[in-house]
Specification:
Order of helices and strands: HHEEEHEHEEEEEHHEEEHEEHEHEH
Helix content: 25-40%
Oligomer: single chain
Structural class: alpha/beta
CATH superfamily of the largest domain: Zn peptidases
Shape: elongated
CATH class of the largest domain: Alpha Beta
Strand content: 15-25%
Number of strands: 16
Largest sheet: 8 strands, mixed
Number of domains: 2
Length: 417
Amino acid sequence: MITRIKEIAKRINPEVIGWRRWLHQHPELSQEEYGTMAFVAARLREMGLEPKTGIGKTGCMAILNGEGRGEKGERRGENGEGRGEKGERAYCVALRSDYDALPIHEATGLPFASENPGVMHACGHDMHTSSLLGAAKILCEMRSELNGDIMFIFEPSEEKYPGGARMMMEDGLFNDVVPNEIYSFHCLPEMDYGRVGMRKGKYMASTDELYWTIKGRGGHGATPHLSVDPILVACHTVVALQQVVSRNASPLMPTVLTIGKIQEVGGRTNIIPDEVKMEGIIRTFDEKWRLEAHDTIRRISTGIAESMGAECDLFIDYGYPFVVNDDQCTQQVHDNACAFLGDDKVEWIDMRMTAEDFAFFAQKIPACYYRIGIHEPGTPFSNLHRANLIVDERSIELANGLIAYNAIKALENRIKQ
């Protein structure tokens, strides 16, 4: 089976690379992915599938019915033997990718660089989408060997709240079929091409966005005693918020608090402004502590402002939960990757403070979110969300095959719910 999958992946690779390059040239921001959705749907139709579009505004989904699963509307037993009761659905494995881009002006110099100024696939979502399309093409060719169904989920707006996963589920993604398992991957620039990594249990952090408006009283820079300087209040607030992690979070609980933006409103060299706006994030791995941290941030922020004669409005945008990988699903991905690539190419990896709205899927369905290396050894390293991110395109053929192989094996193994 592995040999056959690799042969198909190699044969279709030029076409899949072409898909990736088209997607890279035509990136679209979150909740604006109409062209991307149409492109993906067209490729799925060419494979003989019947995609549903507009799920969660710009999402796309298709289901491949395996021919080895019995008659439509029936399913085989939990061990793949015999059939379940008439009318029960087939066992279903979901495969997910994301396809929104970022507001970044590309600086790669690639011949297929973004044609949309200020918009770039700087997080590898073009690679994710083309890889899943490639896996879909492989699985369509191997339909007769599928002991169940495959759901292909192409998710929009992963980069922007409230997140495409939640939007698609709220729009009825799983109304007709709730998958038994779900899998997704993300490219990893710090990992070399040819390597794969995964982690059981808690893997990626929850994330909440923080928005402060600190209101003072502006005036002349030469008469500060007649004003309430919101810049000074903001500076004290930033410093004081460091204690949220250093003195309030347990040393055993990974937590990150970052202020990523400070902007005064109306100031200049000799003008004290009326307001300062700040933006940041809080990330962690425990729901109880997550809420406690919100309270602590609010208490510190308002307390400092009031003590200095200012006001502070704080909006906390409750975001994605943390990603939890199911132990059985993750072990399955590990074992399948070892069989497909070799034991020396697969590794257990550490927790990450990055966040993913795949967490919404993982809360509902046994899941595994894993990593595929995209760094070409010997070349300069560029991280995700950078204008010069380069993907080693050999990783796409690898991903196509591994995604397809894991899906087939998942249907064979049928993790018990």
